[in-house]
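Standup notes
- DV: blocked on the single-chain target, sequence here:
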Amino acid sequence: MFANRARAVLVAAITAAGVLGGTAAAQADAPGAVVQAQPIDVLLPGIGEYDHKWQGHDRSMELYYDGLGTISLFTGAADGEQWNVQWVRNDAAGDVTITLQDRTALYGAGTGGALSSGVFWKAALVTAPDTEVTVLHFGNHSDASVNDSNVGYFWCSESYGTSSVCGA
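- DV (later): unblocked, structure below
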């Protein structure tokens, strides 16, 4: 489910909104009561550093301590692109901005023209709603979107553990 949503995000415009929500169980008032899952709208902050290797379904990224990195985004098994990126901490907002610099590889049809130099995302370390590990959440171009589970998509790092929100 998450893999298909992540692919749709990449195909649609890489920065599309309205995907990848999580759930949390509500407390039951009485013993034996049926508990319904409630959507999580706001993600809790994660703890860690941004400079790691990150991955998700059809994508991978490495952010280096010096503010540079690489990102590979695919729309399927054979179509994708690899880019050099620059990332900058936004200390006041508690997030980072990741900006495409120059394309270093084109595979098949690429991403259909959705990527170009200067395209950027706001991203933040958040706590995955299913496993409570730190994940990187790409929102859209606003600071508020990085804490909204209904916007953007997620990246996992071996340094923190895995989560189903990152896809297959």
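- Follow-up: Residues 11 and 75 are 6 Å apart (CA to CA).
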